[in-house]
Structure formats: C-alpha cells, structure tokens
Amino acid sequence: MNRLSLSGLQQWMDDRFPLTSTWRYHMSEYYVSKNVNWWYLFGSLAILVLVIQVVSGVWLMFYYQPSAERAFSSVEFIMRDVDWGWLMRYMHTTGASAFFVVIYLHMYRSLLYGSYQKPRELLWITGVLLYLVLMAEAFMGYVLPWGQLSYWAGQVIISLASVVPVVGEELVVWLQGGYIVNEATLGRLYAFHVIGLPLVLIGLTFVHIVGLHHVGSSSPDGVEIKKNKDANGKPVDGIAFHPYITVKDLFGWGIFLILFCAVMFFAPTFGGFFIEPPNFQEADPLQTPSAIHPVWYFQAWYAMLQSIPNQALGVVVMLGASAILLFLPWIDRGQVGSIRLRGLGYKIGLGVFTITFIVLTWLGKQEPTGLPVILGQIFTVIYFGYFVFLWAYTYFGFEKTKPVPERVTV
Predict the structure, then answer these.
(1) What pTM, to 2 d.p., does this model score?
(2) Which residues pair with 235 in a beta bridge?
(3) Domains and CATH numbers, the chain
(4) pLDDT tens track for 126-175
(5) Of 401, 27, 407, which Cα lies nearest the Cα of 227?
(6) Beta bridge partners of 18
(7) Whole-angstrom Cα distance, residue 25 to residue 11?
C-alpha cells in the first residue's frame, strides 16, 4: 500500500513537474567515463563548499551589523557571546579558503584533461566566470569584518578603479559612496556580498551544471564516451552518475569534511593565511598597517600588480591575467585533450605554469622592494609566456601526440 501511495504521489508530481525525468537526465541516466579518477571529485566539492558558505553566511547575517561603528564589535559579539558563534564565523572563513583550494584544483583538472576543448568551450567560460565572481565575492566578504587589513585592503583595491580612463576618479567616489572608504562603502559591499553576487554565483552554477550534463564530462583518456553507444543508447564506456559516482563522491566528501573540521577546530587562522593577525584589530583610518597584503588566494594577482611600477599598467596586467583564461579554448589548438596523450612540450609547459603560479602566490606576500619585485616581473612574463607558447606549440604543429584510444582504460 505504501509503495502504491508513493507511486501515485510520484505520478501526481510528474504530471505537474518533470521530477522523474529531471532525476534521470541529471543523475541516474547521466553517464560518465567509467575510469574517472579523484581529480573529478573537486566539482562536487565546490557545490558542497557553496552550501557551507550559504548556510554559515545566512547565520552570520542574523548578528552582523554593516555599520562602520558596529561592524567590528558585532563580529566580536558573534565570536564571544553568541552560542556557537565562533564556530559559524570560523566555518565561513575556513570555507572561503577551502572554496578557492577546491576551485583551483578543479580548474587544474581541466588543464590536465583538456576539459576546455571542443565541445566544452562554453562550459569552461562559465567556469571561469564563476571563478571571477567568486573573487569579487571573497573580496567584499574580506572587507566586512572591518579589521585593519579589511579596511585598508578595501581602500587599495577600490582605488584601482581610478585608472579607468576619463571616469576613473568619479568611479572610485561612486564605489566608495564618498571620498574615502566609509560606512556607505561597507553597506554597498554588504549588499553585494549577501544578495547580489550569491545570486549570480548560484545562477552561474546552475548554468555550469546544465552545460556539463549536456556535453558530458571529459575522460582521463580523452575518449568521448557519447560517440560509442550500445543498442539501448547507453555509452559502452560509461557508468551512471547515480549511484556509482555519487557513492564515490560521498566518500570524498567525508575525507574533505574531516580535513575541513580539523582546520576549523584546531587551526582556524591557519598561521595567518586564512585570517591575518592585524584583522583582529579594529579598522583605524588614521593608522596604515606596516604591510598590506591580500589573503593568500589573491596573492598571485597582487604580485603581478606590485611588480609593475606603473599602476595603470599593473591593473591591466592583473586583470588580463584572469581574463586570458576565458580565451584558453582558442589559444590551445591541440587535437587531443588529455595530458596522457599530449606531447612532452605541453607537459613541461604546464609544469612551468604550475610552478609560476605557486611562486607568484608566494611573492604576493613579500615586500614590494628589491628582489621580490624583479622576480615578480620575471614570473609575470613567464605566466603570459605560457599562453603564447601554448598557442605557437599547437598552432604550428610542433606537438606530437598519441592517438586517442577507441575505448577507455580501466
């Protein structure tokens, strides 16, 4: 009887909403390569962290006050007087860094397996847009605690808009709501952080997932499993996302949550990388910190900015370093995607690019004088040089690749 009742309820729902067909299309009859590895876990981890950030962020909104006079004290109130307030605050700050760890690894997997190549160009573009919106979201959230570094980082970053020709100065005043970072600035950043950009993030995430399930995920072997189907229309080298991949992802989620909780409970500041010591001091517009550095996930871009003496050129380079990722599907003219099939030059180039990004991240924490500036200039050139090399290497046919196998290997 219960089974019949559930069947009747399901039919009633299906007559009014495509519940079953949506489940089949996106879960039980969405097929992925049977040899997907742990690199493919980070996409679902990104969704998990997004949920953590939304839940903890909504909870913090109950007590946070977006006022220049009360913002810092409201955060202190959350930490000291609200039941479990410290937990929610550290969950949110740890989640911000975890989000970028997961996103960077997810994007790196795309570089390893060519997940930006045909027919996944739009999938890559929506992913990069998600990353750029996430950077803006993280910056605005970083300013909200109204600590010393929060305030001065906001001052520095917003002032970069002054390099925009003709309207730069007026744009800075409009963004700040005045001639200096003030309460109006805080209110605007708060509105964008809690309402505007989260809606964009969720919308882009929806588009990204729909696009992924339309073209299908790449495979480590570079085989397009949709091209080889059996009599029932099922890819012969595919397995259903549910229950096979969902079980695997849940196991990965468990490992991730153990590590996440270990950091959150035992090292929430992570030695000053997640929350810097000056940010435990209330913002003082009359006292500039001895050093102003962004949080770790912005440091590579900041290293490029501070290594170029001309501010306008530095801003162009910094923005260009992110924007160039949007054109990667057309920069890489290679005929195969997976690194298992690509030539030695591509593997060396990707290795150099990886080291370059790590070094730039380290340089972003150093004082902008002497050797760090010179190294920043060198590695900025190498960063952009990678894309020039990749285009020339693939466009002029220098790359010698292995043939794409007919079937995936297990």
Answers:
(1) 0.93
(2) 229
(3) 35-292 (1.20.810.10), 293-403 (1.10.287)
(4) 999 999 999 999 999 999 999 998 998 888 888 888 888 888 889 888 88
(5) 407
(6) none
(7) 17
